[in-house]
């Protein structure tokens, strides 16, 4: 290696200029005496969220070619710059303000213009889309699937989240299209299966009141899926048909019915309430009766406590959607569908960073067992006796 400074003193070189010991060994020519050879070159490293030019030493291999310094490669990597750009964009820093919020580094850098920041954000979020939509799902022990939709600039997007057998929440997919479109839902679920989603042991699908979602789940998973309707959506749907003065009391009554650990008793109470509503509020009664059996699926499985409260609504996926809305709320001009997918995928991955395991996750093993029994009930052996 050649010294970076032609002087008899020890060089005070930056860390990125230090070669790894194994890079030197016997493959590099001996270092000439200082002053006899100056082998340096100018390159750019990422510092303070920008690129700055620095000098670095050069080394030659005995058999020809240059020594590639691993430390230099790390500091010069574009990944560092992309990571900072994404973090600042998600925090709401406009592309034109990135230069103003950069840390002082003592010299003017590059890669801080509005267009440069935009290009790097597009590249990083394109990778996020691929990471989300192309991930292999075969290694995940899926127990629960949740599907919901969100509105971005007047267009609906369907998103999917799974909960594994240990309670881990994982975003797995999205599709541009309405939750009321069964084709969109079916294509999303079919894509998950193509990527290795395992459901042969049975899967619990937690959905809102969309008929298209229910139809899509039945089409793709068939009898291997059991459905739990979201009790919060049902309560909102029913009370919307009632006069304002009656809504609070009715919502409280519905909450008590859906919280009943005895599925059959809760079902009887709900039907009794629907009969009472039918005379004066027939539409509210009809809304309550629609899909009523599937309001008590988790209770019917015998799951109680925190896990039951977690899986009788879509709060887990709505929490993820809330993070997506926070991430995207500053975007004013949506150019196309690809831009929406990039931002939404980035928001879903950002939400995953803050996920905790589902509440009541200690009961997940029991849930998986009970789902399996519900999907594949044991067939009793019938013994026949011959009458003498």
Order of helices and strands: HEEHHHHEEEHEHEHHHHHHHHH
Helix content: 40-55%
Q: Runs with pLDDT <50, length 5+?
A: 1-11, 23-38, 379-388
* Strand percent estimate: 5-15%
Distance between the termini: 101 Å
Strand order of the largest sheet: 5-4-3-6-7
Radius of gyration: 30 Å
Structural class: alpha/beta
Give structural notes.
This protein is an alpha/beta fold and 388 residues long. 45% of the residues lie in helices and 14% in strands. It has helices at 21-24, 70-76, 78-90, 98-101, 114-133, 182-194, 211-221, 231-239, 244-258, 263-278, 282-289, 297-300, 305-311, 315-328, 337-354, 364-375, and strands at residues 40-46, 51-57, 142-152, 155-164, 169-176, 203-207, 225-229. The strands form 2 sheets. A 5-stranded mixed β-sheet has the order 5-4-3-6-7, with helices on both faces. A two-stranded antiparallel sheet has the order 1-2. Helix 5 (114-133) packs across helix 15, helix 6 (182-194) runs parallel beside helix 7 and helix 8 (231-239) packs antiparallel against helix 9 (244-258). The longest helix has 20 residues, at 114-133. The relative contact order is 0.10.
Short description:
With 388 residues, the chain is of the alpha/beta class.
Topology:
Blueprint: H1 21-24, E1 40-46, E2 51-57, H2 70-76, H3 78-90, H4 98-101, H5 114-133, E3 142-152, E4 155-164, E5 169-176, H6 182-194, E6 203-207, H7 211-221, E7 225-229, H8 231-239, H9 244-258, H10 263-278, H11 282-289, H12 297-300, H13 305-311, H14 315-328, H15 337-354, H16 364-375
Parallel strand pairs: 3-6, 6-7
Antiparallel strand pairs: 1-2, 3-4, 4-5
Helix pairs in contact: 3-5, 5-15, 6-7, 8-9, 8-11, 10-11, 14-15
């Amino acid at each position: 290696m050649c010294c970076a400074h032609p002087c008899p003193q020890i060089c005070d070189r930056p860390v990125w200029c230090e070669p790894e010991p194994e890079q030197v060994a016997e493959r590099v020519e001996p270092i000439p005496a200082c002053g006899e050879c100056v082998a340096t070159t100018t390159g750019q490293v990422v510092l303070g969220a920008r690129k700055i030019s620095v000098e670095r030493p050069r080394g030659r291999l005995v058999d020809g070619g240059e020594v590639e310094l691993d430390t230099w490669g790390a500091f010069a990597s574009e990944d560092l710059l992309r990571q900072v750009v994404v973090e600042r964009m998600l925090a709401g820093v406009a592309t034109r303000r990135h230069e103003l919020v950069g840390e002082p580094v003592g010299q003017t850098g590059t890669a801080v213009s509005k267009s440069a920041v935009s290009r790097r954000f597009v590249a990083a979020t394109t990778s996020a889309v691929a990471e989300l939509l192309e991930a292999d799902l075969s290694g995940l022990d899926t127990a629960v699937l949740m599907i919901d939709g969100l509105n971005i600039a007047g267009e609906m997007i369907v998103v999917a989240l799974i909960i594994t057998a240990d309670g881990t929440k994982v975003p797995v997919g999205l599709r541009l299209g309405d939750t009321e479109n069964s084709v969109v839902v079916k294509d999303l679920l079919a894509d998950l299966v193509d990527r290795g989603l395992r459901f042969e042991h049975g899967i619990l699908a937690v959905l809102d009141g969309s008929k298209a979602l229910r139809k899509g789940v039945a089409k793709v998973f068939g009898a291997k899926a059991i459905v739990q309707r979201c009790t919060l959506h049902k309560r909102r749907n029913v009370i919307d048909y009632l006069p304002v003065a009656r809504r609070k009391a009715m919502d409280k009554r519905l909450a008590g019915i859906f919280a009943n650990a005895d599925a059959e008793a809760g079902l009887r109470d709900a039907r009794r309430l629907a009969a009472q509503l039918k005379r004066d509020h027939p539409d509210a009664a009809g809304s309550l009766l629609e899909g009523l059996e599937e309001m008590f699926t988790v209770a019917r499985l015998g799951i109680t406590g925190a896990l039951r409260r977690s899986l009788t609504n879509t709060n887990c996926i709505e929490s993820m959607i809330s993070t997506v809305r926070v991430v995207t709320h500053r975007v004013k001009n949506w150019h196309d569908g690809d831009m929406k997918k990039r931002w939404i995928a980035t928001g879903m991955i950002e939400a995953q960073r803050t996920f905790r395991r589902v509440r009541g996750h200690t009961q997940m093993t029991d849930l998986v067992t009970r789902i399996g029994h519900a999907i594949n009930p044991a067939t009793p052996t019938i013994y026949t006796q011959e009458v003498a």
